[in-house]
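Hello Y.,

Per our agreement to keep a running log of every chain we model this quarter, I'm adding this entry. I've kept the format consistent with earlier entries: sequence first, then predicted structure.
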Amino acid sequence: MRIVVGSDHAGFPLKLEIAEALRKEGHDVIDVGTHSTEAVDYPDSAEAVGRAVTDGRAERGVLICGSGVGASVAANKVKGVRAAICHDAYSAHQGVEHDDMNVLVLGGRIVGPALAGELVKAYVGAKYTAEERHARRLAKVIALDNR
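Predicted structure for the entry above:
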């Protein structure tokens, strides 16, 4: 799978670990930055990840900031992005299965590398079910995005 990863400065160390783990699992990783712990603004990272997903360069995205909250809010402003902050494995896979989540957001100051690895594995391994109730709800979400 082609997966875009991005972070602000607070998420940078965890982004490096996640990107390497994804590569080891055989995924094609696109790193849109940041590339250091020098302060940057999370909306820029959120847009870079979101655009890579919505323009088809990546199938899914992983976005990391300090808490995950700001990046999640910003990523959802990109038309076509369905981002969610997840700090448990159930949400990470269920968000894909039921809601066709295409960007996983993590708090680099909230979750450690081991838990982050589990969350990314659950997210990447999940598939959208397209069950009638999920498809109906997703259509309503997409309609909101188009208004």
